[in-house]
Design goal:
Oligomer: single chain
Pfam family, one: Acetyltransf_1
Order of helices and strands: EHHHEEEHEHEHEE
CATH topology: Aminopeptidase
Distance between the termini: 25 Å
Protein name: GNAT family N-acetyltransferase
Strand order of the largest sheet: 1-2-3-5-6-8-7-4
CATH class: Alpha Beta
InterPro entries: Acyl_CoA_acyltransferase (IPR016181), GNAT_dom (IPR000182)
GO molecular function, one term: acyltransferase activity, transferring groups other than amino-acyl groups
CATH architecture: 3-Layer(aba) Sandwich
Shape: globular
Structural class: alpha+beta
CATH superfamily: Gcn5-related N-acetyltransferase (GNAT)
Number of helices: 6
Length: 179
């Protein structure tokens, strides 16, 4: 891991590298691509929207010129629809912090398969949230993705509830953490 370099990208910079980001997405999710929600075109559509959100930030890990992995997220808009699709009653504190613009959503965290199990995901995760001014973080995880789910719980995330953010998406676990 000594040769890895971390680089921060703004929304505009990330948009300029969209095809490389999509290449990593396809490789990281190769066994889960479904041609619908989990597809290159769907990822690129979501990325186009995400990079324009206020507070968007991406942290990339590189080995020389090769992109190894990345994490990105953005501040949840106080009047936005982030919690649409949440199942059950959203806790008042989460509602209040969202309304105050104090919630940061990690949207994607991925590492190329050949680079996994080296602590890179944790490094990316920690570097991204360390720079944030928000009070609460949220991340969605597929409950069937046992390695990711286990990592998030080990890193201090707690389950808030279940959410289906898009009509064609799976039902995810919505996790939260003080940041």
């Amino acid at each position: 891991m000594a040769d890895l370099k971390l680089r921060r990208l703004s929304g505009k910079e990330a948009d300029g590298e969209r095809e490389v980001l999509a290449d990593v997405y396809e490789e990281a999710y190769a066994e889960k691509l479904d041609g619908a929600f989990r597809s290159r075109p769907a990822f690129l559509d979501r990325l186009s929207a995400y990079v324009q959100r206020p507070g968007f930030e991406l942290v990339a890990s590189e080995d020389g010129s090769a992109l190894v992995g990345y994490v990105f997220g953005f501040a949840i808009a106080p009047a936005g629809s982030w919690w649409g699709g949440f199942r059950g009653e959203l806790p008042e504190e989460v509602r209040r912090l969202t309304g105050q613009g104090k919630v940061f959503a990690i949207s994607e965290l991925m590492v190329r398969p050949a680079w996994r199990r080296r602590g890179i995901a944790r490094l990316l995760h920690d570097r991204l949230i360390a720079s944030r001014a928000e009070e609460l973080g949220t991340i969605l995880v597929d409950p069937k993705n046992i390695p990711a789910r286990s990592a998030y719980y080990a890193w201090g995330w707690e389950k808030l509830g279940d959410i289906q953010p898009f009509d064609n998406s799976p039902v995810f676990e919505s996790l939260v953490k003080r940041i």
